[in-house]
Amino acid sequence: MDVQAHNEVQDEHFDLYGFIRMLWEGRWLMLAITCLFTIGGVGYALLATEWFKADLVMVQADENKSLSGNLSQLSGLASLAGINIGAGGVSQTPIAVLRSKELAHDFIADNNLTKVLLVDKVDPATGDWKIRDPEKQPDIRDAVEYFQKKVCNISEDKKAGTVTLSITWRNSAVSAQWANELAQRVNLKLQTRATEEAERNIKYLKDEMAATNITTMQEAIGKVLQSEMQKLLLARGNDEFAFKVVDRAVAPRKRFWPQRSFVAAGSGILGIFASIVVIVSRREIRERRTHAGGMQ
């Protein structure tokens, strides 16, 4: 067993030596291929479209959280009056709206960004879609999908309680502008929604209070009415109703992509692996031809 193990070790050393010798014999080919890949990577890094990423950091508004707790205490009374003010979804609604297709759709439509986002599918000479068939032409649904997958990214740090809205785009100033506008839009959307809901509930509660003569019912409705008035005042007087901006997005000075040093190094490493594959493959082909010639 020891002799066999010794022979296997010798074979492994012999194979390793043969592999190193093979690479040394093909060193000029390896150098050429590696240089070719590196030059190609550097060329791509210099000519590729530059992308910039602007980050905006927010936290959920404290007033919204405290209001959620207050309303949960009155949920039982509100249910008697036929109103649902349960706090179950209050804390999640801002994030859901921020990630919604509806918000992205309205943002793209209002700013006429469909062809801006899908510029690769636009004929630069005419400004029309490259695809002439109207049924196959891109529309705002494609722009929304591209925007949410490639341009806009939303991440949560639950430990710190922060939400980061990142916009990656070709123009540094535009990426910051879009991030700030989206933050304003989500606040305005939820502010408007809360205002309309509170106004509708207040009207309903006032009508119900006027229609009943039961003192306990009037008191219950009055407490719910007070909470809805608080909700209305909070919504009307707070522009940062859902999120408070901790750090506004500013135009980044450095590009996010391509990272030229990373691309150059990665291309060189890829070139080394490719050259090894070529050298090994070339040797295998030679050995097969030699073996085939010997058989004949």
What attributes does this structure have?
single chain; 296 residues; alpha+beta; Bacterial polysaccharide co-polymerase-like; 2 domains; four-stranded antiparallel beta sheet; 11 helices; elongated
Descriptive notes:
It is built from eleven helices and four strands. By secondary structure, it is of the alpha+beta class. It has helices at 2-25, 27-47, 62-73, 75-80, 93-98, 101-110, 114-117, 140-151, 172-211, 215-236, 260-295, and strands at residues 52-60, 152-157, 162-169, 243-247. Helix 2 (27-47) packs antiparallel against helix 11 (260-295). Strand 2 and strand 3 form a beta hairpin. It has two domains: 35-47 and 258-296, no CATH class; 52-247, Bacterial polysaccharide co-polymerase-like. It has a four-stranded antiparallel beta sheet.
Short summary:
The chain has 296 residues and is α+β, with helices and mostly antiparallel strands. Helix content is 65%, strand content 9%. The protein has helices spanning 2-25, 27-47, 62-73, 75-80, 93-98, 101-110, 114-117, 140-151, 172-211, 215-236, 260-295, and strands at 52-60, 152-157, 162-169, 243-247.
